[in-house]
Amino acid sequence: MWYILLLSIWCLLFALFIIAFLISRFGYVTCDNNVCLLGKTALVTGGSTGLGHEIVLSLASRGCRVIIAGRTINSALKNKIIEETNNPNIVLYHVDFTSFKSVRQLAKKLNETEEKLDILVNNSGIGKSLYTDRTEDGLDITMQINHYSPFLLTNLLAGLLKKSNNGRIIFTSSFLSFFHVITKRSVTPLKIKNLPQALYGLTYGNTKFLNIVSSDIFAEKLKKWNITSNVYNPLVAKTNIFNQVTKNVDYRILVDNIVNVISKMLVNLFGIDPKLSIQAAIQLATSKEYTNISGTFLGKVFPKLKPRACHDRILCEAIWRASEEVVQLTDEEKLK
């Protein structure tokens, strides 16, 4: 009987391989509209490389004034974008998402210099940091870059978004959000607990789940100002984010090894061009169809499907309140 079981397992794995292959080749959203963005201003975090850079190029090519916020800021990057898009309206600001002080400085500068903000793309992220590494704020690096800092920035820029006729907030999430391990016991009134070292390799999926939770509540709180907030699934993009997983893997930890192997396999077998991965983001940023659609998780396969815990109101509200405490929002800064 053992050979029947073995054959069944191989058949299942083969079927999963075929499904994953088909999704990687045909499962990405396409954006075919030619909407002009002249007169619009967009902020893209992490816009110097990877998915963020492709989003910048796409928005700029439509005439949008694009502000890039990231750690890598130089004139060569700006000139290259201008040359590729024929759009001189490119602005670069430095921000370090491992520092709440830096995020607040960026928000202050934008609130003082910008008349409005039409599109906010929260794209900055890393695949994995070392378990023992902490930011200047004493937080886990992956959690701060991927969740807390985008959460803080979006709250601080809500005023600028309200000045737009149809402000749009977009978060880059991942299908790995479905593999998060956050429960009610993970969240206290003051913080979201870090994973233990044995499970630390799953932190990225947790942060991508938190992006969805944040987006959904931003959608609710900002609805009366005609501001939408949505999340998109880029599938498996061929970017450097997966290299960080390999770079920071702890080979003593089983989960780290499993995540590392799976990451390499996904990129090598099913990775797609970042230009294709970001089509869903551009659809959310430009399409008239999404003028009044908010709180969705856009992906072509199982569109709008979210992790089950996203529908747990008690958990989501606890996550929101804990995040407010961690980033130290004042009463005036909190969205009512």
Automatic annotation (TrEMBL):
Record's keyword annotation contains Oxidoreductase: yes
Highest rank taxon of the organism: Eukaryota
Single GO term (MF): oxidoreductase activity
InterPro entries: NAD(P)-bd_dom_sf, SDR_fam
Transmembrane feature ranges: none
Annotated keywords: Oxidoreductase
Gene3D superfamilies: NAD(P)-binding Rossmann-like Domain
Signal peptide: none
Protein name: Uncharacterized protein
